[in-house]
TrEMBL record:
SUPFAM superfamilies tied to this protein: PLP-dependent transferases
Domain of life: Bacteria
Name of this protein: Aminotransferase
Coiled coil: none
UniProt lineage: Bacteria, Pseudomonadati, Pseudomonadota, Gammaproteobacteria, Cellvibrionales
Keyword tags: Aminotransferase, Transferase
Gene Ontology molecular function terms on file: transaminase activity
InterPro entries, per the entry: AspAT_Ic, PyrdxlP-dep_Trfase, PyrdxlP-dep_Trfase_major, PyrdxlP-dep_Trfase_small
Amino acid sequence: MQPDQATQLRQLESQLAAEYQTILSKKLNLDLTRGKPSSDQLDLSDALDGILKGNYIAADGTDTRNYGGLDGLPEAKQLGANIMGVDAANVLVGGSSSLTLMFQVASTAYLFGLKDAASAWKNEGEVKFLCPVPGYDRHFTICEQLGIKMVTVPMTSTGPDMDAVEAAIKADSSIKGMWCVPKYSNPTGVVYSDETVERIAKLGKIASANFRVFWDNAYSVHDLVDNAPQLASILEATRRNGTEDSVLQFASTSKITQAGAGVAFVAASAANLAGFKKALGAQTIGPDKVNQIRHTRFLPDRSALMAHMKKHAELLNPRFEAVLEALAGAFEGTDLGAWEKPVGGYFVSFDTRKGCAKETVRLAAEAGVKLTPAGATYPYGKDPEDRNIRIAPSVPTVPEVVEAMKVFVTCVKLASVRQEIAALA
C-alpha cells in the first residue's frame, strides 16, 4: 500500500464518519428485520371481516363452527392446491402458520416416523439435514430444537449446488432431509431451475431410507413482475421418478391475507399424509374451519388469488426498487458488495466484503436502522465469511426505506474502509 493510498483511505474514513455522525443525530427508528406484510398490504384483506354474513356451512354441508375435519374443508384444500400447484387430494389444511406444520411434520418424522414406528429418525442415531446457505433462520431453529445436525451446501443462481447435495447424500446415510425455499428463495430471491427441481426429485433414489425434502414454497404466488419466472412442479417430477414419498410441500396465506390469521397447507403423498395424520390426530380435534371458509370465499379460485397478489406487488415494488436503486448507485462496479435482484418474494440478500457484515449491522443498529443479525441466514447463526445480510423492506413506507438504505450504504462503506485501514496496521 502506497503512503498516498493510506492517506486517501483515512480521509475517506473521516468523511464517512462525519456522515455517520449526522445520521446519528437524526435518532432514526427504522426496521428492516423481518419479511412481514405492511399495514397497507394487510388492508387488502379487510373484506375477510364479515364475509360469511352468518353462513357457516361449507360446500359439503359441514357446519364449520363445530369440531372435526382434521384434513380441512374440501374447498380449503382446493385453495391450497391453487397456491401450490398440486392436486387437492394431496393437501392437508392447518392453522395460520406453515412453520407450525413444518415443525409438526419434522417432529412426527423424528419421533414416530412418517411410515411406521421403525421409520422414526430417532432410531437411526445421529440425524442430519442439508441446509442451502444463505437460508431461512427459522428452518435452522427447527433443526436445533430437534437436535438435528445441519450440514451446509452453497446456494447458486439456479438453486442449491446439486453436485454438493448429491455427493453429501451418497457419502452420508445419516442425512435424512433437506430444506428448500424453491421460489424466491429466502433470502437470495433465487428461483430453482428446472434441472435443479428434477435432480431434487431424484434424491429419493440415492438417499438412505426415510429421507424427506421439506419444500417450503412460501412465495409461490408472490411475484413482483408480470411474466414472472415459473417454478417446475416438484410433484410431477417425483411422480416421474417414483419418489413421491420423498418430498413434502408447505405453503400458507400468511403473506397473502392476514399474516397472523391465515391458513397453512402441507401437500404430500398419501403415505406421508397418513403418517402425519396419525400423530396430528393425537394433538387436535380439528383446525379452525371458520377461518378456512372465510378464505375460500375471499379467494374462490386461482384468478381471484392472482388478482389479489397483483395488488400486493403494486405495494411492494416501490420498496424493492428503493433498495435496489440504492445498492446499484452506491456499489455497482465496486468490490464493496454483491447482491441479487429478486423479482418476487420478500427479501434482498446482500454480501459485504468478507468480515464486514457484523460490523455493518452493528453500525446500522446504532444509527437507528434494525437489520436481521449477521449470521442469521446460516445454521447456528455462524456465517463463516461474515458477509451475508438480509434486507426486508416490506414494512417501512417507501420514504422510510429510502432513508434506511442511505444509512445502510454509509455503514457498509464505513465498515469496509475501517477494515482496510486496520489491515495496514
